[in-house]
Amino acid sequence: MNAEKVVEHIVSWLKDYAVNAKVNGFVIGISGGIDSAVTSTLCAKTGFPVLCVEMPIHQAENQVSRGRQHIEQLKQRFEKVNSIEVNLTSTFEGFKKVVPQIEDLATVNLSLANTRARLRMSTLYYLAGLHGYLVAGTGNKVEDFGVGFYTKYGDGGVDLSPIADLMKSEVYEIAKVLGVPNSIQVAQPTDGLFGDSRTDEDQIGASYDELEWAMKQSESGKITGDFKGREKEVMAIYTQRNRANKHKMDPIPVCLIPAALK
Length: 262
Prior knowledge:
Elements: H1 3-21, E1 25-29, H2 34-44, E2 50-54, H3 61-77, E3 81-85, H4 89-98, H5 105-131, E4 133-135, H6 141-147, H7 168-178, H8 182-185, H9 200-204, H10 208-219, H11 229-244, H12 246-249
Parallel strand pairs: 1-2, 1-4, 2-3
């Protein structure tokens, strides 16, 4: 991949979209991870105003510090980058107090993890509305179209997706060209939605390199290939998640009413 040319292409695409949409800039949630760092830098390179938003909810200190390091670096490099912190911990705790819960803690914790993402989405759209900005998504191709590793109407609720046609490994290539802080480039990917140290690989059961391999096999029609050992395990993980998360990746189903009934 020609990373420099890809950067130029995405930046040009972002500029054109913003001009045609007649908006004032971009707003993006900063997590301290590689995807949000790359996306925010690409947005900053357009020359449009960019609002970087930190939205901690019982967040691990290392994630917070990486995010702040990245934001400060962006501000030094681009004059139209601004930031704001909206601490949603009390909002999240208040939500927990007013909704019913069940005894199955695993189910409750997963639902609450998705709630964190949806609270953040609502915050980004509030700020976007105040400033006339677009909400920039941070999902990569494996997450958005492979295994559906995102929250529906959470981090999946965005106006545009600059890096959704890039595999995770390609995002890392772009990060080097963009000068993303090394602390972010070497950090283990995590969605940070559970308030603990679990990584994306812990949750999914496979690394992004493995998932990229499986996605490429799937795209070439080799889902039922003669796989053995770890390859067989990874393909099973990929296939199961891809099928289970189709409701995220496919358009919302609409019940069409026959003309004769109208």
